[in-house]
# Entry
Amino acid sequence: MALDKVMDEILEGAKKDADLLIQSAEKEKAIILQSANEKILAERKLEAKQLEEMLKRLRQQETSSAELEAKRVVLNARKDVLDQVFSGTLKELSSMADSEKSRLYAKLFANGAKVIPQPNVYCPKGEARLLSGIPGIGSIQETDMDAGVILESKDGMFRLDYRFRTMLEDIWEKELKNVSNILFA
# Structure
């Protein structure tokens, strides 16, 4: 009997030790699980933050791209309007009445004659008659060219290009900002 009692005490002590070890293991397991859950939660928060930042950057890039595209469309539309205004103005100048064109040619000649005395004059075919009667012209030659006149020195060294397209292009370059402001302000 004494042996049974000792055996029972050993078994009971072993059982208590086992219970203590199991409780200790359970506590350690809970601590490990808690730590793992905290790490997982921290990782998820970090990933969510990184994802949100990436989405924010993508939204910003998309917005910037859309704004640039919108600006490009507006600028192209403005350029088209400016091109139409330029073409319309050139067409109006080229198709003005002969009497107006003759007066304009006389003024252009008067300005050019200050630089090139008795110049040779080049004009579009069929427009030499608009220059007849203007004193100081060396010769008049009709040629295939845009409306306006070209004055050339007798030796051919100097030329003044008074074609409407050339003059309009010069004015256009100098005044493009003002024209743009008038049209689009």
